[in-house]
Structures are given as structure tokens and as C-alpha cells.
Give the backbone structure.
Amino acid sequence: MGSKVTIESDRPVPTFFFNSGRQWLNCPNWVEFLVDLGRALGSEELSGQQLSLAVAVPTRAFAANLIALGTVSRRSQMPGGRPSIQEHFEKICALKKGTVLQCIEKQKKYRCAFHGIEMLDGSEFVRVEMYIRKNKTARLIPKKKCQDIILCEEESEYQNKITRKKLIVERPEFTGHFVSPMLPSDFALEKKPECRIIGMQNILKVEAKAEVFAVQNGDQLKTGTLNDVLRIESLLPHDDPYRTQILSSRNEETFIDNLGPVHLTIYDGSNAYLKSDSSRHLGPVTVVVLDKTEPNFEAATQKISDAFIQRRSGMIKLALNHPAPHSIDILGFMETPK
Amino acid sequence: MTFVELAEACNVYQCAEHPMINRHRVQHNDLATFAIRLEKFTYDFRDELSDEFWAPIARLFKHRRYFLQAVPLSFSAIAATDNNLADKVLPLIKRVRSVFPDMEEDVKTLLDLFQRLSAADDNPIGKSIQSMYLESYDASSHSAILIRDSRWGQAVEESFGKDKRFRKLHVISPEYLRDGSCYENLYCVGPAKWFQNHVFSAARASSIHLFCFNWIKDRRSIPNPFRVGTTEVTSPKSARHVKSEFISLVENSRSDDESIDAEDLVPDLNISIVKRRISETMDTDDYAQEVQARLFVLEGDALVMLEAESYSKNLVIDPLYWHDDHEGAEATVSKILTSEIEPGMFVLIRSGGGGDYIEPIANDILGGKAQVLRALQTEWKTLLRMKVKTLGVEAAIDDLQRNGSEKAGYVNLRNWMSARSIKTRDHSDFEALMNFIELGDRCEELWNAAETIHGAHRKAGFTIRKELIEKISQTSLKDLQKSGRAEFRIGASNEGSMLVLRVKKIVAEPFTVPESSVGKILEGSEDLWR
């Protein structure tokens, strides 16, 4: 049967609050437990391994998003492989004039056009141009600050539209609470896909956008959404760096597409899991959230139990900071990585 | 299950954490005698009862036994709902003396008990629920009665509501326990075995009281969902935590004689009679198209066959996708493959008349041209079926390919012969079909007719979906969940309205049925149960 691997959470989930409809209350244990479970599953030690975990819950509400929150927040502490100044500068130099870029200035970002490299007093500068209040404006950004320039995914021509500066992070206190010591703006500017949730896309998005959480900042409560930390690709403006993807379990292509690897894949609900090929892993950790009230719950528990019998190479133990609610049942096991 | 707010989810976890599950045994001498004697009778005479003569009698007795144990209404009120059936069956019982004389005495005893119970105003479970509710009454508390069959919900709610002390008691079915609504007390009518595990393992009430007659053998506990055990979870705040293997049910009173297994009391579908019924109703037309279908048990035990060919799709309402805005209503209505329909979803059935709910709306769109266009369509479809039947499928495919059809194959040919498919996708295939049935000279006329019908069907499909979304955004999904059915009038059609019915069960066994029987509620569905 193999050995028993202990999977540990790193640190307790920082206190946060939820809106009960009448008042802000401390998040209950089930919320903290799921985030803590996500933190444990985000461990770097699991890279290169193959872990499957089924979590049977009394309601699937928020469970997948909370687990993902834990994983994203833990993995924000890991080095992201940011390119060096020289590497980044060389990429900028290779761009065609007129290519759209994003620049960062005082916690805000704006779109602009690349207009070449200029030498001033022996130093190199990136010249960018934009329209501010209908006036064409240029900026020279020194090479040593070139990491404040974000390259867009797809190269496109800058249109002469008025540039509006946008906040990099809408709710920095909330985001910072979960990604500290990383700066919220650094966190938001780094593209690091960590999680993929496959399930009822519209409901997952409604949950992620709900402003029902808050963190304490001095004597004030600062509200936020799960998406402030999850940074879900489809809920962000085009080209913004993301960390989480939500895919529809109704779309057959979700299960056919050759999706790139991410650390954590969550099947949210029995139907999503039953449609998947359970022997095909999209990364080191696969979590299946099963709602005990779903019509196909028993078929899904049967499938995961069969996988446990046929493919497990080792058992696991979870060492978390928050106790498991009695209403949650967990089955986890290691498989031999392919 | 629908979209659950965070605050609701917190309540759900609170209820599900440590629910108190108590079983209360209820007694009733006459019903006990009737239930146990009927069980003994069906066992002792199991060979004789396989004779068709007994089917309606056995069905009447068994169904009545089940309802008297599963519905908290007075026995006489339950009897009143199937008086017609009893009136039809009772003359049969009089013939027992001449047909099965050895069984006469037992049947007479059962009949006496049946009639005595039918006249009684007793409601033992209802009374037990009422006294327990009054004992724990708290004006702010939120309690509900859980019954297995939602079709009785309204009658039970009305019956309890006659006394103003019980007007706040909701009557719900297990499907209702999938969203975020929670209760202080849940009064379940019947043994635990009659309900899905989630009623207890994902409890929506902090106290669950099961009211079960004391002759029913029930389960002792609710097992862990993973049959292979669970993973150990430890935390500094709690001792080593390995989940218990089961959830215990606490016996609140002693059971004297558990002699009938809970599962044996529930009427089940008689598949062999369903098959016989289908073969009896096979079209007399030798060239009628047969299709693969699945049998769906819908709310109220209505039965319907839905086409299950690989391409067959149906419009469904899936409450899983509900959230509280127009976008949410839109997400619940979708067209999915028959193979993807599952219990809990709602299917659309045309109430009364034929099976296809698109056709009458499409005919309205076609207006005065509808009859002529449909006749043209029927003409070539019938000729095609006749020629394929005469030549055989293989030869027909060869012939079509020689006539220039690129897509002629087994699946496509079946599809083209089907009345539910309007035309081929490519003109070249249609031309080959027309040449094959010797209507090549009218190809353009028939293609144009098919295109017009196709356009009307597409438009009708959009109309139905749009109006359905509109109706759903105006209706409370909770009401739909509670009743398991709704009736909507769609479009300006006079062809009747659409029934939206919840899928309770899908029979695993596939059926081959005439295409004309697909999508229609099977007539006399109640006779197909035993």
C-alpha cells in the first residue's frame, strides 16, 4: 500500500470576517478549514507528486473557491521566476514601435504605445506614448525601472484613445491580508496560474464576485471578494495577469482540451468529476468537491473509491491548523506520478 | 441544490455538524394487521399472484398500504383520492371465489381491513407530529414536515393548515433539502430507508424526527459516503480526528415486531408490463420508425419515454444552475443530450396531445402554410422509410452513396428517416435521397419546404427557451422545487400548454419504441406500478 505522507498547512488562516446579512462576524470554522486545506495542498513539497483528494460537503457553496484561495495565498509566497531587468529590457527592445504596453505608476496602470529606446546621458530609457485628456504625452522610463512595464499577451497596435489610469489592485488591504508579505500590487502584476476550477461556471463566478468578506485594517473593516485573491482569468480585464481559471463542466471542450498544467485542479461537483478522466491529472493536486445532496453524489463517491482501490500508491494524513467539521468527509491518496 | 448564499451556507454547516436524529415508533393495530397480512399473503401466494388477474388487486392493496404509511393525512382522506380505482377493482375481488377459491378467505380478510381503514379518520403519524410540534413550539422556529412524495404536499399542508396552530409548518420533499433553507425541526414521515442519505448526512435541520410505524424494519445508521474509509485529519485544536463510520439514529421508542423491510413497502415500476404496453401500442404502420429511448419517472409517478439516440437533445430546467437574477434563470434552461439528463432536473412535456412540444409553436409560425408543408414532409419521409425497409439498410446506404450522398451511413440514415429530423444538412445529401425515392424532379420543392419548416422549428425553439426563461424568472424556483411540477402556456398556440415535471428516476434499461410514443406521458401510468 506504500507509505503515509503527511500534508501540512503552513500557518493559520489570518482572521477574516463574513457578512451574515445583519452584521460582520468572524468566519466560521468550515470557512477557515477549507482555506487551511487549500494552504496545505499548495505546498511546494507536493510538486512532482500526484495527490487526489475528495471532499464531501453538506453544500458545495463556496467550497471550491475557498480551497483555491488557500492554495493561491500559500503559493504567492513562492518565487515566481520573475525575469531579470536585462531579460525584460531585451524583450521590450524587440517590440515593434506602436505595440500596446501597460505601465505602472503610483499603484495605477495605464495603456500606452512603445516608441523605442532612447539614450540620455549614457543611460537607456524606454519611450512610451499615450493620450491623456486628448493630448499626446510621452514618458521616458529608465531601464532600471523597466519591470514597471507589462508586456501584453498578444502584440497589438496602440489605438489613439484616451488613456485612463486604473488601480492595479482594487482592494489592496484585502488582497494583502492573504498574500502578505508580498505586496498586493506585485501579486497582481505577476502571472502565475496556480488553480483551475471545473464546475458550474456561472455560480462559481457569482461566489467569487460576492463582496461578503472583510479583513480588519486598524479599527476599520475592509471588504473584499474571493476574486481579489484568486484573480480569475475570466473576471479580469483582458491581458491582466491571472492566477485562477474557471472552466465550465457543461462545455465538452473543457474535458477534451489539452490544458496546461497547474498546481491545483478542482472538480466542483459530482457531474464535473464524473465527466472527467480520473486517471488524467492536470497537475500535482486534484481535488474533487462533492456535494452530499447532489443526485449523482453516490456515483461520484463510487468513482473516487474505485480510483483509491485501483491506483493508490500511498495514504495521506492531513495536519491542519483548523479542525475538520464533522459534516465534511475526506478521502485522499497518493498515486504514482506518470 | 441552487445557488446558496454564504450566510445560508453557514447555517447549513451548523445544522449538518451534529444533527439529532430520533426515530419515533408509531402504532396502529388495524393498519399493522393489514400491512403484515398483505405481506404474508403476497409471500404465501407469490406464484398465484403472477397471474394477470391479480395485478390490479395487488396494486390497489399495496399502494394503499404504502400511502397510509407515507402520507400524514387521515386514512379516509387518502382513500378518497383513489375511490375510482377501488370501485374498478372491487368487482374483480368478487370473482376470486370462482377463479382462486383457495385464496378467497385471505382476500376477504384483507378486503375487510381495507374497507375499515378506508372509512377511518385516523391519522396516527399526523397526530404524533402535531403533538411533538406543539411540545417544542417556539414562535420564531422554522419547522417542516418531510414527505417522500411531493405530490401529496399541498393536500398535507392544507390539512395541517385547517388548525391555525400548524399553519407555519411547511410540507416539503427531499429535493427541497438541496438548497440553503434550514429548519429547527424536521418531521420525516416514514423510515430512514425511504429517504436519500443526504437528508441525514447533510442535514438541513438541527433536529430530525423520524415517524415510522413499528412493524417496519429500518436502518440503524447512515453510512460514511466513502466505502473505503476516510482520511485522517489532525489539528492542534482537536484530538486525532478519524471520521466515524456512520451517523447513528437514536431510537426514541421500542419497536415490537419489525416484520416488513422498509424497501418492500415502496411501489416499484413493473418493467415487464411497461414493455408489454409498448409492444401493444406499436404503430400498426409497418414503416413506422423505431428509436432508442429511455424511460423517465417524473413527478407524480408519470412515465415518459425520451428519445435516446446519440443526437437526441431535450430542453431541461436544471435548478443546479440557478442564482438570483435573470442570468441565473437563463443558465437553468438548456438543451442537453438525453444521456445527460439526471434526477432533479425538470423536463418539458407537452400537456395533452402529441409528444413534440416544438411542433405546435412552429405550426403557429408557419401559419396557413403549415398543413401543406407538413404533408410534403410526411410524403418523402414515408417513401424513404418504405424503400429502406424494402431494400434493407446496407443496400439503401450503397444506393444513396452512388446517388452522390457523402454522409449516407447507418446513423444519418436513421436520422433522415425520423420524423423528428427535418432535413439533411447538405443539399447534396437531400438530392441523393430524393433521387433514391424517385422524387428527384421535385427535389427543389421539397428542399424549400423542409428549409421553411426547419426555420420555423428553430424560431419556435428560441421562442420556447426565451419564454421559459421569462416564466422562470417570474416564478419562484423554490415553489417549483416544492411542487415538482408547473404548467406554462408558451406562445399564442392553442395546442395546450407545457408541463414542466421533475425527473425522479431514470430506468437504466434502454427501450426500443415507436417514434410516435416518444415525449408523451404513458397513458394509464399508474397501472405500470406494482
The CA atoms of residues 54 and 304 of chain A lie 7 Å apart. Chain A has ten helices and 18 strands. The longest strand of chain A covers residues 108-120.
